[in-house]
Specification:
Structural class: alpha+beta
Mean pLDDT: 81
Distance between the termini: 60 Å
Radius of gyration: 45 Å
Strand order of the largest sheet: 6-3-11-15-14
Largest sheet: 5 strands, mixed
Helix content: 40-55%
Number of strands: 15
Order of helices and strands: EEHHHHHEEEEEEEEEEHHEHEE
Shape: rod-shaped
Number of helices: 8
Low-confidence stretches: 1-19, 330-352
Length: 352
C-alpha cells in the first residue's frame, strides 16, 4: 500500500505503509514498537494549522528526515528531527511519529505527552488506523505511569520532586511520573527540611501534603523512669538518716562528758583510795560508745543513700530527643494507602 504526500514545494512524496500493531511489553520491561513512519502531513486551516509556507517547508523537511531515521532505527536522531519539525508546525502527525521514536527510547512520560497531543483533534489528521494505534499506545504507556499531587500551605517553603524544584508554597503541583520510587523534599530556612521517598505503583494517584516544623517544635524530653521524684526521696531519706546519726553523735558526746564528770567527782570523793568505778558510771561510757557506733553506721547509711539518690537523679535526668514530623500528625513512618473510585495512592502528612 502506498500514500502520496504533497509538499509545499509542489513535489509529490510517497511513503510505504507498514502495518504494525502496538505490542504489550512483558511486565517491568520497556515498551517497544517496530511501526514505521507512515503518517501524513496536511495543512488544514479549519483545524488551526494555517502555518506559513516557509514554516511548512521546514517542517516537512525535518519531518521526512525524521521518518527516514525512525525507519532505520536511528531513534535519537528521529527525536531531534521531529522536535525540530514541531518548532515550525505543531501537527498531530509529527507528535505521533515522535511518540514512536520515544517509545523505543523508553521515555514514557514524553510518549504520553505527544500521544495525547496526537489524538487531540480526532482521527482526521492521522487516519483512523493511526488514531486507533495512538489510543492503544496511550493505554499501554499509562500502565507505566502514575499521578502525583503535592501540596504545601506554608508560605516560602520550596518543594522539589526528584531533585527538581517544582514550586514555592503555598501551592499544589500535579504531574505524571514513571511508576517507581520518587523523592519529595520541602525546605525553608529556619525549619527542618523534610524528605520522603515512597514507591508509587503504576496507575496510582499519590497525594502528599508537606508541612515543616522548627527544631523546637520537633523537640521532646523524656526520663528513664516516670517516677521523677524517686531519686529525691532516696536523697531525702539519706539526709534524714544522716541527721539521726548526727543526733546520736551529739548524744554520745554528752554521755562521754557525763562519764568524765562522774569520774572526776568519784576521784574527788575518794582522794586517798582512788575512784571505784560503779556500774552506773560504766554505763555512761558504754552508752556513749554505743551511740557513737550507731551514729557512724547512720553516717554510712546516709552517705550511701545520698550517693544512690544522686546516681538515680543523674540517670533519670530529662533528656532531649527529636520526633519525626509524622509523629506530630499521628502518622506512622509507613505510608497510609488511599483507596477511592478511580484513585489509589497514599497520604503522608506531617512536618518533614
Amino acid at each position: 500500500m502506498t500514500r502520496t504526500l504533497a509538499t509545499a514545494l509542489g513535489v509529490a512524496l510517497t511513503v510505504s505503509v507498514a502495518a504494525a500493531q502496538p505490542v504489550q511489553a512483558p511486565a517491568g520491561a520497556p515498551m517497544k514498537t517496530d511501526e514505521k513512519a507512515v503518517t501524513r502531513l496536511e495543512n488544514d486551516a479549519s483545524r488551526g494549522d494555517a502555518v506559513s509556507p516557509a514554516d511548512e517547508r521546514e517542517a516537512r523537511i525535518a519531518f521526512l528526515r525524521g521518518n527516514d531515521d525512525l525507519n532505520d532505527g536511528l531513534f535519537p536522531q528521529a527525536v531531534d528531527d521531529y522536535t525540530a519539525a514541531l518548532t515550525h508546525w505543531d501537527h498531530p502527525a509529527i507528535h505521533y511519529n515522535l511518540a514512536l521514536a520515544l517509545i523505543n527510547l523508553d521515555r514514557p512520560l514524553e510518549v504520553y505527552d505527544h500521544l495525547t497531543k496526537a489524538i487531540a483533534d480526532g482521527p482526521e489528521p492521522l487516519d483512523k488506523d493511526k488514531y486507533d494505534h495512538a489510543k492503544e499506545y496511550l493505554q499501554l504507556v499509562q500502565g507505566q505511569l502514575a499521578d502525583i499531587v503535592v501540596s504545601c500551605d506554608q508560605p516560602g517553603v520550596k518543594v522539589a520532586v526528584d531533585g527538581k524544584e517544582v514550586f514555592t508554597a503555598p501551592g499544589t503541583y500535579t504531574a505524571k511520573v514513571r511508576a517507581g520510587k520518587h523523592t519529595f523534599v520541602a525546605d525553608k530556612q529556619g525549619y527542618n527540611a523534610r524528605s520522603t521517598a515512597p514507591v508509587i505503583s503504576p496507575g496510582d494517584t499519590f497525594r502528599i501534603e508537606l508541612t515543616l516544623y522548627t527544631t523546637e517544635e520537633l523537640t521532646r524530653y523524656r526520663r528513664r523512669w516516670d517516677t521523677a521524684w524517686l531519686p529525691y526521696v532516696v536523697i531525702g531519706a539519706g539526709a534524714v538518716v544522716g541527721l539521726v546519726g548526727g543526733g546520736l553523735e551529739l548524744s554520745a558526746q554528752s554521755s562521754f562528758k557525763d562519764y568524765d564528770a562522774a569520774i572526776i567527782s568519784c576521784n574527788h570523793d575518794n582522794a586517798n583510795g582512788g575512784c571505784n568505778v560503779t556500774t552506773s558510771i560504766q554505763h555512761l561510757r558504754d552508752s556513749g560508745n554505743a551511740k557513737r557506733t550507731a551514729g557512724l553506721v547512720m553516717y554510712g547509711v546516709a552517705g550511701s543513700a545520698i550517693a544512690a539518690g544522686a546516681v538515680l537523679a543523674y540517670l533519670n535526668r530529662r533528656q532531649e530527643y527529636r520526633i519525626h514530623a509524622e509523629d506530630l500528625s499521628g502518622e506512622q513512618v509507613s505510608i497510609t494507602p488511599l483507596v477511592a473510585p478511580g484513585m489509589a495512592g497514599a497520604l503522608v502528612q506531617g512536618h518533614f
